[in-house]
Amino acid sequence: MKSTVTDVTRRIRDRSAKTREAYLARVEQGINRPRGSDRMGCANVAHAFAALPANDKLRIVAERAPNIGIVTAYNDMLSAHQPYEGYPALIREEAHKLGATAQVAGGTPAMCDGVTQGLPGMEMSLFSRDTIAMSTAIGLTHDVFDAALLLGICDKIVPGLLIGALHFGHLPCVFVPAGPMSSGLSNNDKAKVREQFAQGLVGRDKLLEAESAAYHGPGTCTFYGTANSNQMLLEAMGLHVPGAAFVHPHDGLRDALTREAVRTVLSITKGQRFTPIGKLVDEKVIVNAMVALLATGGSTNHLIHWVAVARAAGILIDWTDFSELSHVTPLLARVYPNGSADVNQFQAAGGPGFVIRELLKSGVMHEDVAAVAESGISAYARVPHAQGQGVAWANLPARSGDESVVRPADAPFSDSGGLKLLTGNLGRSVIKVSAVPEDRHVIEAPAIVFETQEQLLAAFKAGELERDLVAVVRFQGPRADGMPELHKLTPPLAVLQGKGFKVALVTDGRMSGASGKVPAAIHVSPEVLAGGPLGKVRTGDVIRLDAVTGTLDALVDAAEWARREVATLSAEQREINAHGLGRELFGGMRRNVLTAEEGAVTWL
After folding, report:
1. Domain that holds residue 575
2. 221 carries a ligand binding annotation
3. Sign of CA dihedral 578, 75, 219, 87
4. Tens digit of pLDDT for each residue in 317-327?
5. Where are the alpha helices (DSSP H) in 274-386?
6. Is residue 154 marked as binding?
7. Which of 156, 262, 326, 502 could form a disulfide with 129 if both were Cys (CB 3.0 to 4.6 A apart)?
8. Which of 299, 154, 175, 293 is nearest to 221 (CA)?
9. Measured between alpha carbons, how far is 101 from 91 in angstroms, rounded to an integer?
10. What GO molecular-function term can you cite, just one (predicted)?
11. Could you tell me the pTM of the whole model?
């Protein structure tokens, strides 16, 4: 193991000693209770199983057969989740074959950020994660389950399901993906049309045609955003059936992998392989997820989400941990927006299995960890294929299937990972450098301050941004308006950059997992509404964003900087942020949310 990885892991373990000990004590209490149907009153048991066939009732109550709880994020608004419609029936059928039963414990909301991007609904997106965690808990609170299968893929859904499951840490759990859609219009071609539309060179008809050719069928979007980063991280944590992440929903192997998930969760439900999720997800597993994110240039959203996931298991991590791991983690994948390939090409070139194998070989991923697979994390360095009615695994080729997409650890795209921590007099923030051209890693330019993304878009359309600039978009943090993604800002800023201007974005908001070639210092913490120094910036101040040295500063005289007051959000904008499309219901979350670096957690 590389010493930095062991040092960071040790520091996390030491920092988390008290919270992790308390968490494991609660897990142990859950494990040591009698089974649900033995522990509960007769009326409770009757209600729990009233709708089940008589044979299933007999299995659970008299034969004490395992009962699997299914938590599903199915809806057909999300292309990625539409395939889940038939999964409960398939899971029940496989459970019956294996002498067990299965019940849908509950459903969780699952919103599509692609639908709400740039619209008021996006202001509920981040908070939907903790809503999903709570709804997962509500389903599992029926407390009659011996294990759980969790059906979810997209941005906030997987972190929410994982947070909820970790609060039932005594249960063995397996996550069940559904796979990406087939490749359509390339991500690069889609981005070009978006930029042409931003410049007024094509109309809405051409833009809709391009978008519909890119997003065209069931499965996840094919760029390497938050949804597909989720799947990579679950593989690296050993919470999937190995290799399940990126098999197409209609591939014959997909049903076999889902059936294998039933067999897998039952295999860890009792006996020598009993593996509750609360014990599986330890400090080393969290570090493995962080390393996998860095090695693939994954979504910046996970610098928020995985802090929250770790907290749910009593483990405390921060952006400094990510930064130090990034220094020693090789960048092994280039998938859009870090490259031109989509996730299907990534899978064909070797996919998660190739990356995990190389990370294990190079000593930046812990091998001595638990996983739902019998042979541990090394099982995730292989590739699944159909064998009869089941699944078998084969070794990957020694070489990458396409070195423009995936490379070995001894010949990486970069010696360091795709994410960096920035610090300075503007606070702490993060930047995704893996997709940014090297000649754009340092930007020094005058600031133009905006308090909404609509203001920036209006200024662009009016031709007011044709110059070197650092766009400061503030009051976008979790307390202000729920920390929406600002993905709609990418096309106009990319257009300006394409014209040769030095351009950067600095914000206390989020970009999406698709944040790309424009340098963006995001998640600036503390946010402006909480008194963060980004609120001191005035239009015309020179800002220096330096991703090489890891600094973010307003180049303002220190005495002048100290005298300045932090800007306040207008009463009118507060009212706008608080009302409409259900935003009223999330007022408590906005008031109580922790900082981005603390995971934007609302439940502590």
Report:
1. 419-598
2. yes
3. positive
4. 999 999 999 99
5. 277-280, 283-295, 302-312, 319-328, 343-349, 351-361
6. yes
7. 156
8. 154
9. 9
10. 4 iron, 4 sulfur cluster binding
11. 0.96
